[in-house]
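#lab-general

N.A. 3:47 PM
ok so I finally got the sequence cleaned up, no stray characters, all 266 residues accounted for. can someone with queue access submit it? mine expired

B.Y. 3:52 PM
send it over

N.A. 3:53 PM
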Amino acid sequence: MLHTKKLFLLDMDGTIYLGNRLFDYSLAFLDYITQMGASYIFMTNNSSKNSRQYLQKLNGMNIPATAANLVTSTHATADYILTHYQSQPVYVSGTAAFREELAELGVNITESLTTPVALVMGFDTELTFQKLENMCILLNRNIGYIGSNPDPTCPTEYGYVPDCGSVAQMLKNATKKEPIFIGKPMPTIAEMALKKAAASKAETIIIGDRLFTDIACGIAAEIDTALVLSGESTRKDMETSPHIPKYVFEDLGEMLGELVKISKSQ
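B.Y. 4:20 PM
back already:
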């Protein structure tokens, strides 16, 4: 059924590139999708960068991408905040880029520790102990608690670093509080991408390298999934995972080969 897909929802780190290294086959894969008459949207849980930074990175890798090709956990987090808290003030712990984009999307951010109705936490590559202390102060009160994504780690070219999920676990150890996570594996981010592309679930596929985020998100959203083994998850992981993809490929290069093969057999 791969040849019937009109929308490809792609994870980025571990799928298209790793850190600052673009995989050899990524540009050819994206070009072939366009030749098929299909479109692609990148979906990332990483909220440490804003949309402008992601588009700059993608364009710098010669990947054709505009705002129409990107949905992030920051977008989904802003949507959740505005739906549940409207214009009420929230305290945000995250990078300057995360805070700036939330504000641009209409979120009312406060620096006060006395007025916020909720704490919002992103993947913070600028984390300090003062931020951790502030979050503990807030979590000892009865306020909302939102995490942009549940990932325990973020991949880099040299291994892994703690992501939003790991910081949330640290805060749970201190406060016994857990956030409502917004990004993958929750279906919201995929549903936002479908709405942006005006596509149906049947003509869409989610592609990523993580069983517990990318593949789980597709299953939750009732969208076909493809796991690529160019990032974190392995075939061995599938033996014990409750999240089983419809397709498995070594990488996007192998998936591209399958698409070309199907096309030639038509």
